[in-house]
Amino acid sequence: MNKKIDAFNTIIKESQNIVFFGGAGVSTESGIPDFRSKDGLYHQTYKYPPEEILSHHFFINHTEDFFEFYRNKMNALDYKPNITHIKLAELEKQGKLKAIVTQNIDGLHQKAGSKTVYELHGSILRNYCMDCGKFYDAKTVFSSKSIPYCECGGIIKPDVVLYEESLDNSVVSSAIHAISNCDTLIVAGTSLTVYPASSLIHYYKGNDLILINKDVTPYDNLATLVMHEKLGDVFKYI
């Protein structure tokens, strides 16, 4: 492990254009549950399967049930950034880390101080009226007792990408540009099995691909450096 940490630090020291690509494992160490692990949301019992609740058709047809689940399970406002979020923000301030591409919707990278964050699946921090487009903060939605309505009467929808919805093209384009032009790509806390986000790794043309994940990923054999560790146990040494 010590040799791998040393190798990791050496790569970071020699890199001038790093991009970090992260998944749920980045935030689980802040206490936020993930979806697919044995203790994740998808393995808990609800009136409807969570994959169905978090779909566009369910949001449209069972809006009240959607918001009941959303308020109970997706509220990350009281969680704090962990050592990985903090170290990434420091690397950005040093000018080494150029962008974060994240599958998470909790806003913890920004809370830690990161500026250039491409949120593939949106964010709980942004919410918009489906009729007039007015912006509402997360507290408005999470404090609502039922369906949150705009003052114009429209439903306020969280700016998160539900199943059956497309990713934001501008966010994807920015993420692809960052990954295509970096010299080091750090992929962490993701199984790299969720499409289309996982496909972004194919755009990487740089020198060093670093994979940090507790479990094996389909891309381990392509990486310069692989660490099957908790992220905090790696980033605390950066």
Q: What's the gist of this structure?
A:
This protein is of the alpha/beta class and 238 residues long. Helix content is 32%, strand content 18%.
Notes on the structure:
It is a single chain. The chain is built from 10 helices and 9 strands. The strands form 2 sheets. A 6-stranded parallel beta sheet has the order 3-2-1-7-8-9, sandwiched between helices. Strands 5-4-6 form a 3-stranded antiparallel beta sheet. The protein is elongated. The mean pLDDT is 93. The protein folds into 2 domains: 1-32 and 81-121 and 166-238, Rossmann fold; 33-75 and 123-160, SIR2/SIRT2 'Small Domain', CATH 3.30.1600.10. It has 238 residues and is an alpha/beta fold. 32% of the residues lie in helices and 18% in strands.
List keywords for this structure.
about 240 residues, alpha/beta, Rossmann fold, SIR2/SIRT2 'Small Domain', 2 domains, six-stranded parallel β-sheet, three-stranded antiparallel β-sheet, 10 helices
CATH architecture type of the largest domain: 3-Layer(aba) Sandwich
Report the β-strand fraction as a percent range: 15-25%
Rg (CA only) = 18 Å
Measured between the Cα atoms of the first and last residue, the distance is: 14 Å
User: Class of the largest domain in CATH?
Assistant: Alpha Beta
CATH topology of the largest domain: Rossmann fold
Give the full name of the CATH homologous superfamily of the largest domain.
TPP-binding domain
Mean pLDDT across all residues, rounded? 93
Number of domains: 2
Structural class assignment: alpha/beta
**Spatial order of the strands forming the largest sheet:** 3-2-1-7-8-9
Low-confidence stretches: none
- How many distinct beta strands? 9
